[in-house]
Design goal:
Structural class: alpha/beta
Protein name: 3-hydroxyisobutyrate dehydrogenase
Pfam families: NAD_binding_11, NAD_binding_2
CATH topology of the largest domain: Rossmann fold
Largest sheet: 6 strands, parallel
Radius of gyration: 20 Å
Strand content: 5-15%
CATH superfamily of the largest domain: NAD(P)-binding Rossmann-like Domain
EC number: 1.1.1.31
CATH class of the largest domain: Alpha Beta
GO molecular function: 3-hydroxyisobutyrate dehydrogenase activity; NAD binding; NADP binding
Number of strands: 9
Bound molecules: nicotinamide-adenine-dinucleotide
CATH architecture of the largest domain: 3-Layer(aba) Sandwich
Number of helices: 13
Catalytic activity: 3-hydroxy-2-methylpropanoate + NAD(+) = 2-methyl-3-oxopropanoate + NADH + H(+)
Length: about 300
């Protein structure tokens, strides 16, 4: 069994590191927040006093941080402290350019690295059923798979450096726009006297069928798994959806892709966040659509 350094023990990193412990690995964790380290230590993570202490002499380092700036600052410390042969796995959701910069820094230090962002949310992190989208060389991907398996239902190699982040961003663009389409359809149906049940029963077996309808329906009492049945407690928070759409919009600006829907979706999620919706599941955006519908 391996020794793994784990930096960032928050909503995702906490349960992910616990699953590595359950698989028999020794996990040395570090987080700036004492509440996060306290919870991780209850799950068997050995709490380190610093990033450097967490990564010295380990076989692999997993980072699960808020964004690209945190990642690059953290890599400065990690790269100076790890032993040769340590594998670097970043599972944070960050800008593709930052992910590729992190790969470059690792390569300059002679280390293999992967970007391995996840889909599946906190429930997937707890259950060990995340989907990992991996960018990096074949060799780094094969090495990372063993470390990722205890946290994963699926580990998919998406291509070279940064392509895990590209995949995640594109998936969430589809998710954001499909959720907005489903939510608008329910609000329009409400206005015209159509019951939620009738729309759900038809669309769920027709061409409107999608995950945003049949797994995370934005209106309650249609499908058991929906966060709408739990007062829109996330799930996947609207603030994180706004973050991911921001990454998509800036990547589109740099690449020249025409992604009008991503821009519009980002504006709608920005509005919902300004209205105080950021901490709710992203499906709660239906409330914002209702609020902005005329009399
Ligand atoms: P979080 O804010 O709960 O956790 C991040 C942790 O990193 C915090 O505990 C923070 O104290 C710690 N941290 C920040 N800077 C640090 C540093 N320099 N050294 C050590 N610790 C540091 O966020 P989260 O929900 O766990 O998300 C983590 C990443 O996963 C984000 O990039 C997010 O976009 C992505 N993600 C989240 C979800 C989700 O549903 N929460 C789903 C998929 C992907």
């Amino acid at each position: 069994m391996a020794v793994i350094g784990f930096i960032g023990l928050g909503h995702m990193g906490g349960p992910m590191s616990a699953n590595l412990v359950k698989a028999g690995h020794t996990v040395r964790g570090f987080d700036l927040a004492s509440e996060a380290t306290r919870r991780a230590s209850e799950q068997g993570v050995t709490v380190a006093a610093s990033t450097v202490e967490a990564v010295e002499g380990v076989d692999a380092v997993v980072t699960m941080l808020p964004g690209g700036q945190h990642l690059l600052e953290c890599y400065d410390r990690i790269l100076a402290a790890v032993s040769p042969g340590t594998l670097l796995i970043d599972s944070s959701t960050v800008d593709v350019a930052d992910a590729r910069r992190a790969h470059e820094l690792a390569e300059e230090a002679g280390l293999d690295s992967v970007d391995a962002p996840v889909s599946g949310g906190t429930a997937g992190a707890e259950a060990g059923t995340l989907t990992f989208m991996v960018g990096g060389t074949e060799r780094a991907y094969l090495a990372a798979r063993d470390f990722l398996e205890p946290m994963a239902r699926k580990v998919i190699h998406c291509g070279g450096a940064g392509n895990g982040q590209v995949t995640k961003m594109c998936n969430n663009l589809m998710l954001a726009t499909s959720m907005l389409g489903v939510a608008e359809a329910f609000v329009l149906g409400e206005r015209l006297g159509l019951s939620h049940r009738a729309l759900y029963d038809v669309a769920s077996v027709s061409t409107g069928q999608c995950w945003s309808l049949t797994t995370n329906c934005p209106v309650p009492d249609m499908v058991e798994t929906s966060r709408a049945n739990h007062d829109y407690e996330p799930g996947f928070a609207a603030s994180l959806m706004l973050k991911d759409l921001g990454l998509a919009v800036s990547a589109a600006d740099r690449s020249g892709a025409d992604t009008e829907l991503a821009r519009l979706a980002a504006r709608i999620y920005e509005r919902f966040n300004e209205e105080g919706g950021g901490g709710y599941d992203f499906s709660a955006v239906i409330d914002s659509i209702r609020r902005h519908s005329g009399e």
